[in-house]
Amino acid sequence: MKVCAALLLLVIIGTWGNAQADEVKRDGKWRGSGGAALSISSGNTRSSSINLTADAARVTPVNKLTLNSQILGSRSESNGLTSTTANQWAVSTRYDHNISPHVFGFGGLNLNHDQIKLLALRSVVSGGLGYHLIKSEDHQFDIFSGFSYKSDKYSGSGIYINNQLRTSLNAAEVLFGEESTNKLSETVSFSQRLVINSSLNNTGNRATFNASLLVALNKTLSLSVTLQDRYDGFVTAPLKKNDILFFTGINVKFGG
């Protein structure tokens, strides 16, 4: 209850304060934010988790370059036994170039690691075309499609895919996606992104969904609430195909 009351107070302060929600400025300067969320509990079971994020973008009237990164770690201790419940990181970059006022081309690179899924390293390169359905100062909604190529390396003895034990997997994929950013008020902004990767060699489909609500507290700090859902179709029991993350934290803006 104390945590909920504190979050509510932050929202009220952010709404009343002289803050301003993020605006996309197309002047070619680097801007971004870094965030942190921490959770610690003790008693019969001791647990701790931390989520760190950093995002940056350089936008001009013609193109956009984005950089994103995330580190998530979680541990629990019970009856003298310590276990890792999450140990993953991800970095990505994407370049968008406007071909016309509504059509753009893109190319991207994603790298990520997930200890629980025995994923030592996943590398994904992608490219395609997109369309700006809505593009204004306060709202933007894009759809895009293309191809991606995934290269996985698994730790230990590997994982079972289609009843075969594999230590690596390469797959060509078709991708479909949509994303939007919305300035809901002077202090509140919302963004979401959905990407579906469909394998061309029947090794399982993938999907990622991210949604974030930002409440500006002042010109530098903002309260963030984020939901993430990651689906891996090739994952087999006892692991689950969906990883759902929900966390709140404080973001710090940089670059003006």
**Whole-angstrom Rg:** 20 Å
Strand order across the largest sheet: 1-2-3-4-5-6-7-10-11-12-13-14
Task: Report the strand count.
Answer: 14
CATH topology: Porin
Q: Please name the CATH architecture.
A: Beta Barrel
Instruction: Bin the helical content.
Output: under 10%
* Content of β-strand: over 45%
Say which CATH homologous superfamily is assigned.
Answer: monomeric porin ompg
Low-confidence stretches: 1-18
- The geometry reads as flat
| Largest beta-sheet details | 12 strands, antiparallel, barrel
Report how far apart the termini are. 35 Å
What is the total domain count? Answer: 1
Q: Helix- and strand-based class?
A: mainly beta
Mean pLDDT: 87
Order of helices and strands: HEEEEEEEEEEEEEE
Compute the number of helices.
1
Oligomerization: single chain
CATH top level is: Mainly Beta
Question: Which helices and strands occur, and which strands form pairs?
Answer:
Layout: H1 2-16, E1 30-41, E2 45-59, E3 63-78, E4 81-98, E5 103-114, E6 119-135, E7 139-154, E8 159-161, E9 164-166, E10 168-183, E11 188-199, E12 206-216, E13 221-232, E14 242-254
Antiparallel strand pairs: 1-2, 1-14, 2-3, 3-4, 4-5, 5-6, 6-7, 7-10, 8-9, 10-11, 11-12, 12-13, 13-14
